[in-house]
Amino acid sequence: MLSFVNLVIDRYHISSNDVRVAFVRYADQANVVFNLDRYTDANSLKTAVSAVQLLNGGSNLTVALDTVRTQVFGSSAARQGVWKVTIVITDQLQGSAALTTAISNAKAADIRMYGVGIRVNGRQINSSTLYTLSEQRGQNNPWQATFVNGYSDLTNHVQSLLGFTCLEGSAGLAPTTSPNVPSKYS
Q1: Architecture of domain 2-171 in CATH?
Q2: Do residues 54 and 26 lie in contact, with contact meaning Cβ atoms separated by under 8 Å?
Q3: Which residues contact 22 (CB under 8 A, 6 or more apart)?
Q4: Residues 135, 144 contacting (CB under 8 angstroms)
Q5: What is the pLDDT of residues 50-94, one digit of tens each?
Q6: pLDDT digits (tens, 9 = 90+) for 89-101
Q7: How confident is the model at residue 137 (pLDDT cuts 50, 70, 90)?
Q8: 30-34 vs 145-148, strand pairing mode
Q9: Spans of all domains in the chain
Q10: How far apart (Å, rounded) are the C-alpha atoms in residues 61 and 145?
C-alpha cells in the first residue's frame, strides 16, 4: 500500500504552495502520522510515507473520517480556498449509521473523497458505502471509487485516482462539480 501512495506522490508537485499531503492511519482508532504542513518536497514526503508502520486490527473508518475532518482539514495547516481531497484505502468496509454521519460531515466540510476498496481474504467491501463515500454533490461517477483484487493490484490503479484528484496544471482533469476550481490542491 505504501508503494501505491508513493506512486501517487510522484505525479504531483509537492511544495508548501502546491500539493500538500497528510497521512492518517487507522484501525480501531485513527491518528495523524503527519499533517499537511510537515513535508514540503516529494523526496522527504516519500521517505516519511515509506517509514509509516501500518496498523493491525479493525477498520474504524468513522473515526478516520472524523480525524481527517477535524485534525487535518480543521487544523491551521489547511489552506483556505483549495480543494480538500482525501483518499480512503480500505480492505474492510461495512455500512453503519455512524459511518453515514461521518461521510455526511466530511462532505459538508467540502472534503472530496476517493475510495479504494481492496478485496482480500474473502472480506466484504460494501460497494454502496464506498460509492456513497466517493460521490460528490449527488453525482456518482464510476471513476471516483475503485475496487482492486489485493494490495499488489493497487499500483495498477494510480491512473484512475489521478483523474479524480487532478494534477497540477491539468484543471481539465478535475471533476466539473465545482464552478470555481481552485488553482492549488491540498
Answers
A1: 3-Layer(aba) Sandwich (3.40)
A2: no
A3: 32, 34, 35, 36, 38, 68, 72, 77
A4: yes
A5: 999 988 878 889 999 999 999 999 988 888 888 888 888 888 888
A6: 888 888 889 989 9
A7: low
A8: unpaired
A9: 2-171
A10: 15
